[in-house]
């Protein structure tokens, strides 16, 4: 095999490895949803989608994300469940169910439509349910539910 052929083969192999690696870790290319007991999330209480958004550098771009607290607004409430309904008070169609992870964060990169608005509901691991009375078209929950207005359930 000539030096030119060897170089060409090496170059093609090297280029394909670089291309695959860059494509694999491209921002927004990942698909992920929170899961019960998982502790791999971070920045509890922060507005998740300030970083995990289209145009951001994170691998995962969330469509819904937030943090659940206990009524004291300081204690975390892991392993709860978030529901998004088409009607208020848990009525209408159930559009999305999200487990809250072991750090009390919930998130998904799955695509769905808010339409004219969805009604969030949170159920704690002990079974208490709280519903948001107004609809939302924004999945960046912690952008409104910040340190003075937490998502809470007992």
Describe this structure in words.
It is a single chain. The protein has 154 residues and is an alpha+beta fold. The chain has two domains: 1-27; 48-152, no CATH class. Helices cover 14% and strands 20% of the residues. It is built from one helix and seven strands. It has a four-stranded antiparallel beta sheet with strand order 3-2-5-6, with no helix packed on it. It has a three-stranded mixed beta sheet with strand order 4-1-7, with no helix packed on it. The radius of gyration is 20 Å and the shape is globular.
Summarize the structure.
With 154 residues, the chain is of the alpha+beta class. 14% of the residues lie in helices and 20% in strands.
Mean pLDDT equals: 87
Structural class by secondary-structure content: alpha+beta
Overall geometry comes to globular
Q: N-to-C SSE series?
A: HEEEEEEE
Q: What gap, in angstroms, lies between the N and C termini?
A: 72 Å
How much of the residues is beta strand, in percent?
15-25%
**Radius of gyration based on Cα positions:** 20 Å
Bin the helical content: 10-25%
Largest sheet: 4 strands, antiparallel
How many individual helices?
A: 1
| Poorly predicted tracts of residues | 14-25
Number of strands: 7
Q: Please indicate the count of domains.
A: 2
Q: What is the topology, as strand order, of the major beta sheet?
A: 3-2-5-6
């Amino acid at each position: 095999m000539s030096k030119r052929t060897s170089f060409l083969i090496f170059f093609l192999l090297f280029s394909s490895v670089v291309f695959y690696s860059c494509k694999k870790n491209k921002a927004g290319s990942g698909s992920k949803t929170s899961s019960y007991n998982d502790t791999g999330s971070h920045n509890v209480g922060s507005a998740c989608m300030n970083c995990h958004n289209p145009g951001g550098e994170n691998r995962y771009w969330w469509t819904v994300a937030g943090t659940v607290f206990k009524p004291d607004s300081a204690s975390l409430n892991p392993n709860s469940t978030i529901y998004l309904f088409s009607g208020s008070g848990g009525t209408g169609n159930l559009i999305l169910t999200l487990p809250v992870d072991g750090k009390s964060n919930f998130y998904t990169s799955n695509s769905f439509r808010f339409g004219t608005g969805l009604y969030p509901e949170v159920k704690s691991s002990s079974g208490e349910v709280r519903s948001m009375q107004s609809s939302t078209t924004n999945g960046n929950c912690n952008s409104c539910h910040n340190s003075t207005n937490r998502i809470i359930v007992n």
